[in-house]
Amino acid sequence: MKRPDLHVKTSFFILLMVIFGPLGNVLLGRGMRKIGSVDVESVGQVFHIAMRVLSSPSIWAGILSLISFFVAYMLVLSWADYSYVQPASSVSYLMVALLAHFLLHEVVTPVRWLGVGIICLGVLVVGYTPHRTTEPC
Amino acid sequence: MENLILYLLIIGAGTAGELCVTRAMKTVGEVHDFRPIAILRVFSRALRVSWMWIGVSLMATAFFSLLTVLTTQNVSLVVPVTALNYGAGALGGRFILGEKVSARRWAGVLLVCLGVGVVILGHA
After folding, report:
1. Where are the domains of chain B?
2. End-to-end CA distance of chain B
3. Nearest residue, CB atoms, A25 vs list B75, B110, B112
4. CB-based contact A119 B116, cutoff 8 Å
5. Is B30 close to A79, i.e. CB distance below 8 A?
6. Nearest 5 degrees, angle CA B55-CA B112-CA B100?
7. Residue B38: C-alpha distances to residues A9, A72, B25, B35, B56 (Å)
8. A70 vs chain B: nearest CA distance in angstroms?
9. pTM of the full structure
10. Measured between CB atoms, does B42 come within 8 Å of chain A?
């Protein structure tokens, strides 16, 4: 049975996932790149690295974004199939490449853009399959 | 080698964690009320489901592996590689959650894996 309200709320929460997921990853990427390569040789170094991670605004903003992503993710999984939600949120891969290019100024090669395009095409094909194939509990 | 282990943790623990969280949320039931207090109640119910704790622990393992990889690798490479979760996710959805994974869905998963391969080639 088709339920328009279900479609609207599923789309809305997937949109939130697509916004907050990539944003969180990019902010974490920026924060961790500033910290640099992790080379742990003693407990003191673990503490030192942990303090640097916890004092980074980028990392905190990234964590908050990922928490928002997770809330939206949990809620949508209460009614939709995992195998529907996962591909439907695929636009996030394109968003990550765009954010990495424009915000982090990383070099995203044409081959990598092609790969991201194929990933998006693949997950779109998956996304056109029925979004609920099991009975609700 | 170290990066390979971390990627395996990101994909394996990440997918297993998501499958556990899905099972937990299906146990909680469909959410209809989205006021903050109602969402807090949903969380409270979800936290009483053991699958949620197992899932979050596995996802945390994947998350910290991701953090470690991000210290040395570009985010535009790391995040697309995690798309291999789609293959693991389709298998888990089919055999663990009992979802019907059609030929069309498998074709999509194959395309995703191809895309991941191209992304890795683009990095080499």
Report:
1. 2-123
2. 16
3. B75
4. yes
5. yes
6. 60
7. 16, 14, 15, 5, 21
8. 10
9. 0.75
10. yes
